[in-house]
Amino acid sequence: MRDANIKDAVKEKYGSAALRVTAGGSSCCGAASANSSGIDPITSNLYDPAQSGQIPAEAMLASLGCGNPTALAKLHPGETVLDLGSGGGIDVLLSAKRVGPSGKAYGLDMTDEMLALANANKLRAGVENVEFLKGEIEKIPLPDDSVDVIISNCVINLSADKDAVLREAFRVLKPGGRFAVSDVVTRGEMLPEIRKSVLLWVGCIAGALQESDYRNKLSSAGFTDIEIEPTRIYRLEDAREFLSGQGFDVDALAPQVDGKFLSAFIRAVKPLASSAPACCGPTCCN
User: Fold this and answer.
1) How far apart are CA 10 and CA 13, in angstroms?
2) CA distances from 202 to 10, 14, 158, 222 (A)
3) Range in 28-37, 141-150, 155-164, 166-175 with the lowest mean pLDDT
């Protein structure tokens, strides 16, 4: 699958989702929009009533995530937070409240329709310490060492170049900064039929990394203290929701993906810069 095809499919999917919300509907991340139940096992029931009551209804309707990074990430007053793939802005708005007026929350998205919806939600929420940026998560438009915490909600798995995303995340984080994202990961090999499906890619499934691959890519980017904590493990009936309406033999494939897909909270840290003094002569470093 070509990178350009994936990017175009993601833009179309999420741009359409934003327009549906603007028109008074709701959005859906996974394949459930094509099946009979209308309930997405990935995106449903992620935010508790206390959180949903803090933000505009339109932000909740545009939620396309697989977890709740703002509930699991440790955010402190005065910190700067960046949400990769911020969509309608739900996690940015929740983060802005947690870091307070002395902090800042950025949202980054490549889709004009989602950015328009996010900025409208910002106005509805009356939150001032928020800024939405247009750009791609493989090339973050922020300077080096400028962010305390990076969050993301079921977006990194959509990228065709995850190594670039993680390198960029490492670059913009301050030394000691935290990577705290929700994402879909897999256990074991994934069937080729699923990997080839663009529809399942934009539904947060086909682009998911194996747990070990995610760890290795984070480590290669420079991160330490890597943890992957499962938050939902998708079973046989969930697999039927993923696969129905996609042209697959659901009865044949669903048992093979049972338990192999999971939403997880992924943590890592950018190490502090070394405090050792620079070498000043031919013998001082011996």
Assistant:
1) 5
2) 6, 9, 6, 28
3) 28-37
Q: Considering the domain boundaries, does residue 83 fall inside one?
A: yes
CATH code (residue 82): 3.40.50.150
In a domain, 140, yes or no: yes
Residue 279 per-residue DSSP state: P
Are 114 and 141 in contact, with CB atoms under 8 Å apart?
A: no
In a domain, 258, yes or no: yes
Which pLDDT tens digit goes with each residue over 74-131? 899 999 999 999 988 888 999 999 999 999 999 999 888 889 989 998 998 899 999 9
Q: Which domain holds residue 196?
A: 3-269
| Amino acid sitting at position 159 | S
List all residues 6 or more positions away from 227 whose beta carbon is below 8 Å from its beta carbon: 266, 267, 268
What pLDDT shows up at residue 66?
Answer: 52
Q: How many domains does the chain have?
A: 1
